[in-house]
Design a protein that fits this description.
The structure holds two protein chains of two kinds.
Chain A: E1 3-5, E2 8-11, H1 15-26, E3 31-34, E4 49-50, E5 55-56, H2 57-70, E6 74-77, E7 80-87, E8 93-99, H3 114-118, E9 122-124, E10 133-135, E11 137-138, E12 150-151, H4 158-162, H5 169-177, H6 181-189, H7 195-201, H8 205-209, H9 221-235, E13 250-254, H10 258-269, E14 273-277, H11 286-289, H12 298-310, E15 314-316, H13 324-329, E16 334-337, E17 343-344, E18 357-359, H14 360-368, E19 379-383, H15 387-398, E20 403-408, H16 419-427, E21 431-434, E22 436-443, E23 449-462, E24 468-472, E25 478-481, E26 484-487, E27 491-492, E28 524-526, H17 529-532, H18 537-555, H19 572-576, E29 582-584, H20 610-618, H21 631-635, E30 649-655, E31 657-660, E32 664-666, E33 683-685, H22 686-693, E34 713-720, H23 736-750, E35 755-760, H24 770-780, E36 783-786, E37 789-794, E38 800-805, E39 813-818, E40 820-825, E41 827-829, H25 832-835, E42 867-869, H26 879-902
Parallel strand pairs in A: 1-30, 2-3, 2-31, 3-6, 13-14, 13-16, 14-15, 16-28, 18-26, 19-20, 19-26, 20-21, 31-42, 33-40, 34-35, 34-40, 35-36
Antiparallel strand pairs in A: 4-5, 7-8, 8-30, 9-10, 11-12, 17-27, 22-23, 23-24, 23-25, 32-41, 37-38, 38-39
Helix pairs in contact in A: 1-2, 1-26, 5-6, 5-9, 5-20, 6-9, 7-9, 9-20, 10-18, 14-15, 22-23, 23-24
Chain B: E1 2-4, H1 16-21, H2 23-34, H3 41-48, H4 52-64, E2 68-70, E3 82-84
Antiparallel strand pairs in B: 2-3
Helix pairs in contact in B: 2-4, 3-4
The chains are: A alpha/beta, B mainly alpha.
Chain lengths: ~900, ~90
């Protein structure tokens, strides 16, 4: 962490903070100004006009905002926070400051807002008091200073973070929700050419992490990917992928499974000349030769492989590579070995060489190559509990086996197979013999299989896998009569062709560096299942991406690092807490049609309909806020301006004094439930009305939020949350009366036919020309009724009935109906300031505001020598008073700094 | 539709954040309704079969991002009419 020195740290760039920074800067002090929002200006810039002059708030704020940002003595950091401030014994302050990642290069951004227009994520616009949506990519408000975009990104969404292939699942879901199916396809394509394949055959770890899963159920994320792929296929569009100019370097990839194809895809796009060498007669590896067609049709795999071929990648089949140095000699600059795990593991029991004993992957491969064994009428036992075992069993059913039994040494819950695969196998008539282990293959005199002798097992203490260790039950041997046995107990790589060129471990897996996948032969990289043993498609795709990244680094002289740059995953509890409630929506129907006796290899799962896809995608709750759909990147006219992987940056600043100008918080109006804010749409707050009145308002004019109607009868309720012991705030908020009077006048100007009524306790107009301002509102026609409002109810048309006391007209309880009610909410202390220091160090006053122990004689001074408070952080103040108070604080700061320079009155801080 | 509030009492209506997210899927439906002629917010809500206050969120966000605009001087019974601007993507 680097350290920087300033004379003063000003925390908060509202009007008090800006004024403090400007005056201190004018005096020649070096000021570090830290603002948590992406623009300076605080609340004032959001107002319509100011009282009593009715000057445009924007017009008088923006010059000060610009001066603040451009002042030569002020370093203004927006979208930053002060994490903490500590004092050292010499009286200096050390502040830890974090510049939050904007994900936009502030120097390159032109403020064109194209990213905002393109963004696919809508969130409430806090700068419009939540009256309208903004986008995750946004400029805070039109007069923002600096007028630079920021992308709301709270971390990686769990679905995207969980994807071993590194695919932005949230991104394509968000695109599909917006009807941008082709863009969704291309987003996945950016990671891998295997879009249609993954849309059908991956096991969707994204869905396992979907936050919506804790509500009514996970989104159909995998099927949405297939939907995008199918939509692309139907469109007849090309991939539209951009390819770098040829760089003159060649890479050979041994193996054409998901790792090899993905690596080839990535490297070819970078300008490499890539050749894939495949030992099998067809390309695709396990996708083409291991996964049954009812789950993954060959045509889909072929289409995905065509994506690779379209980039100019050559794929040679029927080529077994045995000599890696020879590839180097042929001119390949690097080699990737990604040969997978195609070899079936044997049963290891007597009789396994009998006629009728097959290996699982060998069996599946022969079926896919059109050499299926004749199983008609035969009894088949499949040994194993993994996905290959399920695929084998279900394939055997389709080949006409009279019976298919899966024999597994543990229980159903301990099976490594995906639970859906096991359940679907059962629905297709596959039987399960659980907690049995083979001890011998029995046969007839001709050497053919006639049974599998098994021993029953019980589960003992958990082993390294966390599952109960199977232990044989003595005397429990029995024979399962059968004609064919398929051993699907495991797969292992066949790396024998490489001889001693590459090191292998005890399991026959290739040895490669855990990060770079580089082998002992520096130009040879190894990745995928050949290194890790059998995994799944998404992991294999991720391996291909990693290998391509590292090969490119190696060939360009870079460090072999930097592949996984995901942001930390968001906290699901925090995501769910963003909403007060969730509407539960129907889940997506299961698209599979299973038959008890399947007879063919037709694809089982139906595609999502348009309506199902839209409904499914619309359930996404945008966990990370930004979805990483990359539409902003595509729309941005400046290459490299947007970096969605940018990180927060922290540094330490040493300063001689601190000005706390963190302002106030508005009273949350829902704490007065009798007024119905949050329940009745046409009850709004004063700040919401100011936004409706502002030149940059969220609606085209002053409309009520409940139905977009121009209001004709508008009521104000003053002292909402102020002078109210019921909500724990006995203090007057000092400016609610006057901003209400201001709004009264503006409303009567904007809506000449509107009736404006104000329910008040008493009007507090103590400033210069304030009372005249109030009298002016009355003379314009505003009706002021003295007395508390007891209750608001809503009519079926959204109108609001107020029950109130009319003190000056007999004191009776009266009811009146209005179109719109404005709650003149008061203010509350912002406790953020206290968090900056050690607990209790910055002492609050009796009401929680930043305390000024000598408020009368020494305004701006706090309980900490050298720390001063400016503006409304120390109590409710209007704009003029905030500026005055900031002036006082500035004088205190200057006196403190000058005193410190001379050594007079030096502060001694206990160590 | 059931509205739930994890760990708390049932909520009276959908959370604003959730309504705003739906703009993406409601947008084509609103544009399709407006293709038949300009509509006010309550008329759009009726065409969608959605609450008017939710429709305000969608219409105003679409207005903000250039999908539709009010017709100046079109207010009738206190409501403006809105029409598509021609933005397609």
């Amino acid at each position: 962490m680097t350290a920087m020195n300033y004379d003063v740290l000003v925390v908060g760039a509202g009007i008090g903070g800006m004024e403090s920074a400007l005056k201190l800067g004018d005096m020649g002090y070096k000021v570090l100004l830290v603002e948590k929002e992406a623009s300076v200006g605080g609340k004032m810039i959001l107002l319509s006009k100011v009282f009593p002059t009715l000057d445009c708030a924007s017009c008088i704020s923006t010059p000060k905002m610009a001066s603040t940002i451009h002042h030569p003595n002020i370093t203004a950091l927006t979208y930053a926070r002060v994490d903490g401030i500590r004092r050292s014994p010499d009286g200096a302050f050390h502040a830890t400051v974090t510049k939050k990642a904007r994900h936009v290069d502030i120097d390159a951004c032109t403020g064109c807002q194209k990213c905002e227009t393109a963004c696919t994520v809508a969130v409430p616009d806090e700068f419009n008091a939540d009256l309208v949506a903004r986008r995750a990519a946004h400029i805070t408000f039109p007069q923002a200073v600096p007028k630079k975009a920021v992308i709301s990104r709270e971390g990686s969404s769990p679905c995207s973070f969980a994807c071993p292939a590194g695919i932005q699942a949230h991104g394509y879901v968000s695109l599909i929700r917006s009807g941008l199916n082709e863009q969704a396809y291309r987003l996945v394509l950016d990671a891998t050419p295997l879009v249609g394949t993954l849309g059908r055959a991956c096991y969707a770890p994204c869905e396992g992490e979907c936050t919506r899963g804790s509500l009514e159920g996970t989104l159909p994320i995998r099927r949405l990917k297939r939907y995008a792929s199918d939509a692309h296929e139907a469109s007849g569009n090309g991939t539209g992928i951009e390819i770098a100019a040829p760089n003159g370097k060649r890479v050979a990839i041994v193996g054409s499974g998901p790792t090899g194809l993905t690596a080839a895809w990535q490297l070819a796009r970078l300008g490499y000349s890539v050749r894939i060498l495949e030992a099998a007669p067809v390309a695709g590896g396990f996708l083409r030769l291991g996964i049954p067609s009812y789950r993954l049709p060959e045509a889909v795999v072929e289409r995905d492989i065509d994506n690779v071929r379209e980039l100019g990648v050559e794929i040679e089949t029927g080529v077994t590579v045995r000599d890696l140095p020879a590839l180097k000699a042929q001119g390949f600059d690097a080699v990737l070995v990604a040969t997978g795990t195609h070899k079936s593991q044997g049963l290891g029991v007597p009789g396994e060489d009998r006629l009728g004993v097959l290996g699982g992957t060998d069996f599946l491969r022969s079926v896919k190559l059109g050499h299926a064994p004749n199983l008609t009428g035969k009894r088949v036992v499949v040994v194993g509990g993994g996905n290959v075992a399920m695929d084998t069993a279900r394939t055997a059913r389709r080949l006409g086996a009279a019976s298919v039994t899966v024999a597994y040494r543990r229980g159903r819950d301990e099976m490594p197979a995906h639970h859906v695969e096991a359940a679907d196998a059962e629905k297709e008539g596959v039987g399960f013999a659980l907690q049995v282990a083979p001890v011998e293959v029995t046969g007839d005199a001709a050497g053919a299989v006639n049974g599998l002798r098994c021993q029953r097992m019980r589960l003992g203490a958990a082993d390294a896998s966390g599952r109960g260790r199977p232990e044989p039950i003595p005397g429990s041997e029995h024979v399962i009569a059968c004609d064919v046995i398929v051993a699907a107990i495991g797969m292992r790589p066949d790396t024998s062709a490489f001889g001693t060129q590459l090191a292998t471990d005890q399991g026959g897996r290739l040895v490669a560096d855990a990060t770079s996948r580089q082998t002992a032969l520096s130009y040879v990289f190894a990745a995928g299942d050949a290194v890790h043993g059998p995994t799944d498609i998404t992991r294999a795709v991720g391996e291909g991406r990693r290998a391509a990244h590292m090969i490119n680094r190696w060939l360009t002289g870079g460090m072999l690092a930097g592949f996984d740059d995901r942001l930390p995953v968001v906290d699901k509890a925090a995501v769910l807490a963003r909403q007060k409630a969730y509407a539960l929506r129907p889940g997506t129907p299961d698209g599979s049609t299973l038959e008890a006796a399947p007879a063919d290899f037709r694809e089982l799962e139906a595609p999502l309909t348009d309506a199902e896809a839209t409904a499914g995608a619309s359930r996404c709750i945008d966990c990370g806020v930004c979805s990483e759909c990359n539409e902003c990147v595509a729309a941005c006219p400046v290459d490299g301006c947007i970096d969605l992987r940018a990180r927060d940056e922290s540094f330490e600043a040493q300063v001689g004094a601190v000005v706390v100008s963190t302002g106030f918080k508005l009273f949350p109006a829902d704490l007065k439930p009798e007024y119905g804010w949050g329940r009745f749409r046409n009850v709004i707050t004063g700040m919401q009305m100011d936004r409706l009145l502002a030149p940059t308002r969220p609606f085209n004019t002053i409309l009520r939020p409940g139905d977009g109607k121009l209001p004709e009868r508008i009521a104000y309720i003053l002292c909402t949350g102020s002078r109210d012991e019921q909500v724990g705030n006995p203090l007057c908020s000092r400016f609610c009366c006057m901003y209400s009077v201001k709004q009264n006048q503006l409303l009567m100007g904007a809506l000449p036919l509107a009736d404006v009524t104000v329910h008040y306790m008493d009007i507090r107009a103590p400033g210069k020309r304030y009372d005249e301002f109030y009298e002016q509102a009355k003379s314009m026609g505003a009706n002021y009724i003295k007395g508390r409002v007891a209750d608001i109810s809503e009519t079926p048309t959204g109108d609001l009935v107020l029950t109130y006391e009319d003190i000056e007209n007999g004191g009776g309880v009266v009811k009146a109906e209005y179109d719109l009610v404005v709650l003149a909410v008061g203010v509350q202390p912002n406790h953020d300031a206290e968090q900056l220091f050690e607990v209790g160090e910055l002492a609050p006053d009796a009401w929680g505001w930043v305390g000024e122990p000598e408020e009368d004689l020494n305004p701006g001074a706090t309980s900490i020598p050298g720390v001063f408070v400016a503006g409304a952080a120390s109590g409710a103040k209007d704009i003029a008073d905030s500026i005055l108070h900031a002036g006082a604080a500035v004088a205190q700061v200057a006196a403190h700094l000058e005193t410190a320079k001379t050594g007079a009155g030096k502060v001694t801080v206990p160590a | 539709m059931v509205t739930t509030n994890p760990g708390g009492p049932a909520a009276p209506h959908r959370d604003d954040r959730e309504v705003m997210r739906d703009e993406a899927v409601m947008r084509p439906r609103i544009l399709a309704a407006l293709a038949q002629g300009p509509l006010t917010v309550p008329e759009s809500a009726a065409a969608l079969g959605a609450p008017a206050h939710e429709t305000v969120f969608w219409v105003m966000a679409m207005r903000r991002y250039g999908w539709l605009a009010e017709i100046k001087g079109s207010e009738s019974d206190g409501y403006f009419q809105y029409q598509p601007t021609g933005r397609t993507v």
